[in-house]
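This entry is listed as follows:

___
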Amino acid sequence: MERFRRTRLNPHLRSLVRETHVSIDDFIYPLFVRPGEGIKKEIASMPGVYQMSLDEILKECELLQSLGIHSIILFGIPEVKDSVGSDALCDHGIIATAVRAIKRAYPKMFVVTDLCFCEYTDHGHCGILDHVHETVDNDLTLGISAQQALVHAHAGVDMIAPSGMMDGIITTLRDALDGGGYTNLPIMSYSTKFASGYYGPFRDVAESVPSFGDRSTYQMDPANRREAIRESLVDEAQGADILMVKPALAYLDIIRDIREASSLPLAVYNVSGEYAMLKHAGAAGLIDYNRVMMETMVGFKRAGADIIISYHAKEVAQLLN
């Protein structure tokens, strides 16, 4: 008889034969920066997540580094929004200003910027509107996305992460960055991003609720597995340096599929709804929060993720330290 318990009875032996490991180095922590001073506003739907002014963001970076977290992804909430997201195209906009300040204060912090327009437009969609079809005009949005990438690059960002799901975005950004002299700036593509209901709380913190409709015309149908793989492989062919699956928890099969189809590093975004479910279930005493959180992180790694973008990152770091 095969006795699997022989390697389970002793805790040290269990550790020695453990196949999947979670490290602090696996994580990127999201931060939301807004204009002002002394602002640290907690989001009711996401306990422990805040909108912060830049002075508070800098304090947060110090805390993150003390925990061993050295990678962040920045989202901006501008003071003024318009139809094309002009703040995102300005060298003095909220994101460009934040990148310069963070890199000046914490030069070793690895700063990633989310490259999109949903937080910057007054309609909440991810680019210039096509009013006829009630969607985003893909090709017009590509043009301003290239401008946004150069703004981020000029500010000193370490990596850009386009999240708008525009067809051809990686080629557009790679050409713009290379043409601007930023050939060594990597692109982490939101290569397989689903039109998911798990994003609800994010729209509270990023103030990016669409004013009409949803994003199903440009984000992926959650029912489509083969198309999901194709999306990521096309971005790889166009020059993406890192691929991503978003959300993560309901898409572990897609993570595994892409892991087996590509040798590029693979990120997952452990999104706001996933985070909120664990937070509120833990607060209600329904789960052992820390145990379920770590089990979830192991699940992402076991499925094939190399990088985890997660609002849990600080808590994971505290448990691992």
Q: What stands out?
A: The two ends are 40 Å apart (CA to CA). Residues 138-155 form the longest helix (18 residues). The longest strand covers residues 27-34.
